UniProtKB/TrEMBL annotation:
It comes from Paracoccus aerius. InterPro entries: Homeodomain-like_sf, HTH-type_TetR-like_transc_reg, HTH_TetR, Tet_transcr_reg_TetR-rel_C_sf, Tscrpt_reg_YcdC_C. The lineage of its organism: Bacteria, Pseudomonadati, Pseudomonadota, Alphaproteobacteria, Rhodobacterales. Keywords: DNA-binding. PROSITE patterns: HTH_TETR_2 (PS50977). This is TetR family transcriptional regulator C-terminal domain-containing protein. Residues 37-56 bind DNA.
Length: 205
């Protein structure tokens, strides 16, 4: 039987793919999916349009690759929740990890939020499959801790939703947050202790 496995990318090919995805992030974040073009992505990546199309067949494929890569990155902290760890410490570490992602990857967060607001046309299957499985796994760990009396009882999936909302807000609504707080404030630095205190009081037993 013939082996249809694609050969691994060379270092230059991997670099060019990364350049394209980095350029696409800039373009999609600024213009949205509909307003972005392959020409703009090529210019942002510092590559020719034919070179971009050598690696990705279409703008749609670039967008989908960027979003699925982003979703994997976004879910990584949840997968690190240790069922054998100290429950409150694990939850608070997850909150801080999500907040740090808003600090380091604000454009990525806004791109993902924009996709969701558009009805997630490029992520529908993933949201109903892989994402749900990861959330179900984390919710089962949380529910187990609550059943053991080690965390205060709340609905675990809504707890996760609240963490997403309260951490990603600082990336997705950065302009609004900074306008309200003023230039002398560091929103994410201030958010860290606030959220730690909020969830500590909510979940402590």
């Amino acid at each position: 039987m013939a082996d249809h496995t694609e050969p691994p990318l060379s270092r230059i090919q991997q670099k060019n793919r990364e350049l394209i995805l980095k350029g696409a992030l800039t373009v999609f974040s600024a213009n949205g999916f509909r307003g972005a073009t392959i020409d703009q992505i090529a210019e942002a990546a510092g590559l020719s349009k034919p070179n971009v199309l050598y690696y990705f067949a279409s703008k749609d494929e670039i967008h989908r690759t960027l979003l699925t890569t982003l979703l994997d990155m976004w879910l990584a902290p949840m997968l690190r929740i240790n069922p054998r760890g100290e429950p409150l410490a694990e939850v608070l570490a997850y909150v801080q990890a999500k907040l740090e992602m808003s600090r380091r990857f604000p454009r990525e967060s806004r791109l993902f939020a924009h996709e969701i607001l558009q009805g997630a046309p490029h992520l529908t299957e993933i949201l109903g499959g892989g994402l749900r499985e990861v959330v179900d796994g984390a919710a089962a760990i949380l529910q187990g801790w609550m059943d053991e009396g080690r965390l205060a009882p709340v609905e675990p999936r809504h707890l996760i939703f609240s963490i997403w909302a309260l951490t990603q807000h600082y990336a997705d609504f950065d302009v609004q947050v900074r306008a309200v707080l003023g230039p002398s404030h560091d929103p994410l630095a201030e958010a860290g202790p606030f959220l730690d205190n909020l969830y500590r009081k909510m979940l402590s037993v």
